[in-house]
Amino acid sequence: LIMLDGKTLVFVEVRYRKHLGWGGALESVDMRKRGKLIVAAQQFLQHEVRWCKSPCRFDVVAIEPSGPHDALQLSWLKNAFEC
Q1: 69/13 Cα distance (integer angstroms)
Q2: d(Cα 61, Cα 54) in Å, to the nearest integer?
Q3: Which of 5, 14, 16, 60 is the most buried (most CB within 10 A)?
Q4: Strand ordering across the sheet containing 8-16
């Protein structure tokens, strides 16, 4: 997702984990995934030049199970990493 927070352009990665056996949703945004997100952001900014001077950040929204009855927990980590 690409969103605006005031004048800041925000690239948001949404991750969902049904089971935590392979790690949580936040942990799934590893160095390889971060690199892909950075490249995607760079390509977007090169294509959409009107945004190229805007401040930018990377957020991660993590959704994973929390307790019984298929309850889900949503965590929004702002400024999750820098390039």
Answers
A1: 26
A2: 22
A3: 60
A4: 2-5, 8-16, 56-65, 72-81
Chain centroid offset of residue 64 CA: 15
pLDDT tens sequence across 2-11: 999 999 999 9
Rounded to whole angstroms, the Cα distance separating 30 from 49 reads 28
Q: In Å, how far are 17, 18, 19, 52, 66 from 71, measured between CA atoms?
A: 12, 11, 12, 40, 5
The contacts found for 31-35 with CB under 8 angstroms, 24 or more apart, are 34/58, 34/81, 34/83
Strands 56-65 and 8-16: parallel
For 60-69, what is each residue's pLDDT tens digit? 999 887 877 7
